[in-house]
Specification:
Number of strands: 5
Oligomer: single chain
Structural class: alpha/beta
Number of domains: 2
Bound molecules: manganese (II) ion
Number of helices: 9
CATH superfamily of the largest domain: inorganic pyrophosphatase (n-terminal core)
Length: 264
């Protein structure tokens, strides 16, 4: 059949070359050419995919050199989240919950009755006592744990399946809470959780309201025993910064009042 189509000597030569060099490889046989087409098509697709990946729009950071102009990342949306400290609460756990609720625009709660020291701090800086974590109005809220990560310290009312964040400065042992999804877990080897919240305020460049700054300062001084405990780090020496941000009382004086309020 094919030989009959040959009409010129050139075609004759080409046909002979085909029979001699190409036909032995059976490239013209149907299964082989389908495979060849499939491979070519796959290569084409791969080229398009690679080209797409390489050319896709990558947002340009345009980073300035000065830290002052460093882009501030957006805070996560924790507006439906209750911030709560550990059972047998202290100034650090109550004030870090109040300040974190202010920073992330959520709600603060407490695990149980506040002690005298905490009562003094809240009164001194004019802050309301947060409601109990077991308050029925928190039923549909998410939870953020402050100043603890151990199961046995989680306050009553907290739904362990709805924990969206943990901010803490304690060791992570076998009795830590289990969270089945990746969440915001921030644990630093610092002297207090309030120090961590203070730094989150600084990093987000949010203004710290005066009562919140006072509460944070109280938490730092209480947990670090006036910056004298061996757990104190340079990060905890934020007191002057909090002091500058509107707290009118000098840190040592506040610590003296805190300390003496325990026996009142
Ligand atoms: Mn603490």
């Amino acid at each position: 059949m094919r030989e009959k189509r040959v009409t010129s000597p050139y075609q004759e030569t080409a046909w002979r070359a085909f029979r001699r060099y190409i036909k032995p490889y059976k490239l013209s046989s149907r299964p082989r050419s389908r495979l060849l087409l499939a491979v070519l098509f796959a290569c084409l697709l791969l080229t398009f995919a690679i080209n797409y990946l390489l050319s896709s729009e990558v947002p340009k950071a345009n980073l300035p050199l000065e830290m002052n102009n460093f882009p501030v990342p957006q805070l996560p949306d924790f507006s439906n989240t209750v911030f709560v400290g550990h059972q047998k609460n202290d100034v650090d756990s109550i004030c870090s919950a109040i300040a974190a609720a202010e920073l992330f625009r959520g709600v603060a709660a407490r695990a149980d009755d506040i002690n005298r020291e905490t009562e003094f701090v809240l009164k001194y800086f004019g802050l309301p006592v947060p409601p109990l974590a077991s308050d029925p109005s928190f039923a549909n809220h998410d939870w953020c744990l402050l100043d603890h990560n151990q199961k046995d310290k989680v306050p009553a009312g907290v739904d362990l399946d709805k924990i969206v964040c943990v901010i803490d400065h304690h060791q992570l042992l076998g009795n830590a809470i289990e969270i089945s999804e990746p969440r915001m877990i921030d644990i630093q080897p610092w002297g207090s959780t309030t120090t961590m919240i203070a730094f989150k305020f600084f990093a987000s460049k949010r203004e710290i309201p005066r009562p919140i700054a006072g509460c944070l300062l109280g938490g730092v001084l209480s947990d670090t025993v006036n910056l004298r405990s061996p757990t104190t780090t340079d990060y905890d020496r934020v007191s002057p910064y909090l002091h500058v941000r509107g707290v009118v009382i000098a840190p040592p004086h506040l610590f003296f009042l805190l300390f003496s309020s325990r026996w009142q």
